Amino acid sequence: MSELPCDASPGIASPRHAMSVAFILLGGVLLPLFTLVFEAMTHTSGEAFFDPIPSLSHIVLLALVPLSNAGLLYLLWRPELGLPKGWGVFNAFAIGLAAVYALLYLPLTPFAPFLVFFYGFGFLPLTPLLALLAAWRGRALLKRRSGGAMAGFWPGIGLAVLALFLVNLPASLTRFGLGLAARPDHAEAQFGVRWLRAVGDEKLLRQLCYSRSGLTTDLLGMLASLGDAPSPETVRKIYYQVTGQPFNHLPEPVRKGVRATWRDGDLDLGGKQVGQRNEGVSLSQSRLDGSFDADAALGYLEWTLVFRNDSARQQEARAQIALPPGAVVSRLTLWIDGEEREAAFGSRRQTSEAYRQVVQARRDPVLVTTAGKDRVMLQLFPIPPGGGEMKVRLGITTPLQLDSARAAQLFLPGWRERNFDIAPQLSHSVWLAANRPLSGANFWRREKTGEQAYALRGELSDVQLAGPASRVELAREALAGASWSPDAVAGAGRVVSQRFEESVATPPHRLALVVDGSQGLAGLGGEIAAALGQLPDGIELALFPASDASGLAAGPLHPAQAAERLRQMPFVGGQDNLPSLGQAWDWAGEGGAAGGAVLWIHGPQPVLLGGLEAIRQRSERQPGRVRLYALEALAGPNEILQGLDGMAGVSVLRRSGALRADLAETFATWQPGRMAIRALRSQQPGGQPGEAAGKTSDHLVRLWAAEQIDRLLARGDQASRQAAGAMAVKYQLVTPVSGAVVLETAAQYAAAGLEPVAPGSVPTVPEPEEWLLMAVVAALLGWLWWRRRAGQFGAGVPA
Fold it and tell me: What would the pLDDT profile of 386-438 be if each residue is shown by its tens digit?
């Protein structure tokens, strides 16, 4: 190839073209490379505007732009090499890539100088434009040097658009489906959900649960985002419908940069939901201590938790905790500067508002409120940054579940939803003490610490703590004995007594079975079907699957027919269980007589896809007609039960083994003639109960008070609700109408109209020696009672 004269040559040595070569080097090679590395490390544009490199494929594509421009410089430096075949296509390919990104950054380009000055990333929106101009200038120089046209421009542009389309296709399909799923028309929304189940990108969906989406790197995605993007709350609902999981079961998938800790906001800070995962927040220590009176079938647990924050800003820890059946939170403690601070108990609104006010002031509060039957919500803020910690203690008063006259069982508390991490190597240190022998799975260590003093201890993983294997069994004496405890709150010498009554159980005459058709239960449908064969004769059965599929609901059915329908039932995505619950409630309550039941077998219910007022109305207008049994087949959040908090006639069944065995055990309690054991608690005037009774802890008083509060709430009128709230505050219990909050200063308590409880009035876990002392005192009181009765009898005998 002949060279042009020096004055017309585009060679690098020509002063005429030195500026062009320098521009290509700086704007087309060095700046794009620096920007690509900077964005990959800091994710600055991804946080502030849009993510230009959401995947490794995008990084590889964009790296071709400076590579192409570097090749231009090399060809200009070595004119004797000529123009390699296909180089025109490669150069046009780089031009096409740079042009698309320059178009995306066009809204920011006029403000680039200000962005450089104020935010330090103004070169980001300028880089694609400069790379485009550099590639174009290099192409012009090569064309001039070769003296002819440079082929391959439009094929290269087409290849660039095609490459971007292919690497963005999963995101484009996801955004298209998301737009459909967010529409108000039910048919279109359902089509969008099915579309996302088939071709949606789970990571992108999870990312959009944290913030609204900005521009995208694909034209189809841009068209899908022209309207108002769905809010994070809307995407969270769609995420559940698509995957069947809460969005926070995994961390946020966005790659974090050095600016992320300052830019990211907690959308759920101080709110009523657990919400998004907070990066850097973790549970660093967990200790669970408990003491139990097996004969009185009650006890007390203290769960001490230490939360750590490794991020660079203050964070809030939030979690939902499943309590043992029938349990109630009776103590809340926060360590402030190494000193224990006890909670104040007040109305739910009063304590929640006090917490939010202090959160806004960036002080030290912790709040506990109920989150449905046998569940509470724990919130604490602020956990100090840079490795700071907050320590909190939760006190739980719990009854024991009676399997028989001589055996009781305890279910430990566990997480149902959380916004913090738990390292796989973290262990929950558990120590349980009782006046009777305890037993459990093989990971427990049994100990005898003294006369009538037994212990069970273990280092449990989080999976073990939350699973059925954490169930503990306690031996106990027969039902003959009663228990009592002085009611120090009521005063005037009042006592609360408890006795056990064994009577024939009353099974439901109608059972409406609601089975959650979400994907997580796909492997459990066969177990449910097999268990139906254990349903007692005489109970009318109907099936109401919560499923996209139609035609499966029917009743009455023979258990074998219901089992066959269950085997045909598809389990996909996340299903709306509310319509099926409403239909089941109506069927179970037909005829007007009490005794209907709804057995709801469900997985996580992290969002509400409908309203709850219709179900509440059924319960309030027809009290006692239908009872709801909720069996959690898979652990997780439950917004439906949370919305039914305080509603009468709701029972939560805990898993204790295989689902089939748990269902068979439940059905066995409905067998004709089956005896049921229940505790009868009552408050009495001064003095001991009128029969031989053993003194137990004041947790008996708290359980009695919790029962009275439930009865008041079941009435449904405002006066009873206010009376229930006053009683909950008086007895220091967390209920549907009360909460517990720890504030930092006396001024904050005064501003909220609250008063922290006296340290001496809070429950504690007794040491093993205290159990022996309690046994001695109980024996002494029994002997004194016997002597008094004997003296009265002797005085009545004539000499």
Answer: 999 999 999 999 999 987 778 899 999 999 999 999 988 999 999 999 999 99
* CATH superfamily name and code, 506-672: von Willebrand factor, type A domain (3.40.50.410)
Which among 336, 289, 310, 264 has a CA at the least distance from the CA of 47?
Answer: 264
**Domain 281-476 = CATH 2.60.40:** yes
Which stretches of 586-727 are assigned E, i.e. beta strand?
A: 596-602, 626-632, 650-653, 675-684, 693-695
Q: Which residues of the chain have pLDDT under 70?
A: 1-17, 47-48, 114-122, 148, 212-228, 254-265, 361, 363-364, 478-480, 687-692, 766-799
Q: Residue 592 has what DSSP assignment? A: S
The two three-digit tokens of residue 682, written as one number:
């009552």
Predicted pLDDT at 329? 98
Angle, vertex CA 372, rays to CA 366 and CA 378, nearest 5: 15
The predicted structure's pLDDT at residue 442? 87
Helix/strand/coil for 403: strand
- Indicate the angle between helix axes 578-588 and 613-621, nearest 10 degrees: 20
Q: Percent helix, strand, coil in the chain (nearest 5)?
A: 40, 25, 35
303 and 290 in contact (C-beta within 8 Å)?
no
Residues in contact with 167: Cβ distance below 8 Å, sequence separation at least 6, in sequence order: 55, 57, 58, 61
The residues, any chain, with a CB within 8 Å of residue 388's CB and separated by 6 or more, are: 308, 309
The helix/strand/coil state of 548 is coil
Task: List the one residue out of 759, 646, 710 whose CA is nearest residue 344.
Answer: 759
Residue 245 per-residue DSSP state: S
- Tokens coding 486: 């002085």
pLDDT the model gives residue 357: 84
Can you tell me which residue has the tokens 């439009």?
Answer: 154
Tens digits of residue pLDDT in 79-110 = 877 778 888 899 999 999 999 999 888 877 77
> What are the tens digits of pLDDT across the range 167-217?
989 988 999 999 999 999 999 999 999 999 999 999 999 988 987 555 555
Asked if 706 contacts 735 with a C-beta cutoff of 8 angstroms, the reply is yes
Q: What is the pLDDT of residue 593?
A: 72
Decide the pairing of beta strands 510-516 and 540-546.
parallel
pLDDT value of position 255: 53
Distances from the Cα of 735 to the Cα of 262, 348, 628, 638, angstroms: 37, 8, 19, 17
Cβ–Cβ under 8 Å, residues 604 and 579: no
Taking residue 228's Cβ as centre, other Cβ atoms within 10 Å add up to: 8
* DSSP state, residue 700: H
The long-range contacts involving 449-458, CB below 8 angstroms and separated by at least 24 positions, are 449/768, 450/768, 450/769, 450/771, 450/772, 451/772, 451/775, 452/771, 452/772, 452/775, 453/768, 453/769, 453/771, 453/772, 455/431, 455/768, 456/430, 456/431, 456/432, 457/429, 457/430, 457/431, 457/432, 458/430
